[in-house]
Amino acid sequence: MMIKISEIKVTPIKPNRTLIAFCSFLVDECLYVGDIALHYRPQEERDPYWLVYPSKILFNGKRINTVHPVNQETGLLIIRAVVKEYEEQTKKIHEDESHEGGLNYDDNIKIF
After folding, report:
1. How confident is the model at residue 46 (pLDDT cuts 50, 70, 90)?
2. Total domain count for the chain?
3. How does 50-60 read in b/e, with b if 16+ C-beta sit within 10 Å?
């Protein structure tokens, strides 16, 4: 069964180590998934992008995943869709940069 990823929103940020953006999307137009971190490591030629899904730290210090793909096929489908949207947005940002004099990152996002 193939799922549909739609309404992908990507918010590029000033790069912080490997973190370059946050994103959200809909799964099959009925489940919103948000607070996904997009990372980039240029020295990795094969798979330079990866996603980090939300997790929660329990009172005992144990970390549990709150949402994530359950198989590789779904994970690849999601990351390809997110990276495509990210590259389209950053291409527009860089085109606008030459007209407006600077990149338009979201400076309001704080990284802890």
Report:
1. confident
2. 1
3. ebeeeeeeeee
